[in-house]
Amino acid sequence: MPRILVLAGKDGGAVVERRIETNIEIDATASRIWALLTDFARMPFWNPFIKSISGNLVQGDRLSVAIAPPGKSRVWFTPTVLTVRPQCELRWLGHMLIPGFFDGEHYFLLEPIGDEKTHLTQGEKFSGLLVALLSGALSATATGFEAMNTALKREAERNGSPDEPDYPSFLSGPITPLIQK
User: Fold this and answer.
1) Which residues contact 121 (CB under 8 A, 6 or more apart)?
2) Are 25 and 117 in contact (CB under 8 A)?
3) Which CATH superfamily is domain 23-158 in?
């Protein structure tokens, strides 16, 4: 069950931060899970929450991300990559409008459990002036995280190479146009 934490200001006043955190154990190596999380071209084939993602996984670079929380419209944003630690952690920071209005720091943490199992934490810390007004969308986002975690578990536990996702052969190799001149 996802946790939604509400943190208030020191004086007990307006909410300044909210956090969603989800966890799942996956019967696959951190290497296999990392391969799935960072194969942006193939992510839409298995991921019900992140519908599109592109860019370079380099600290300071920007990504282009489209998410679709259940029951909500698709949302596009361009977060900045904060942390890339292969097979351990991926973290980015996005802003709505301008920094400080509604910021989201999204993270994936992978912790190996023995040789063939991994504990995945997916979460996001929301902060800014508009968090209290836009917090109604957080339950759909938490549900989206859970759906993504379940789909990632299913995909990672499929038979195939331990470090590479198992996709139909037509998804690999060069793309040939259907209409040629």
Assistant:
1) 21, 22, 23, 107, 108, 109, 111
2) yes
3) START domain (3.30.530.20)
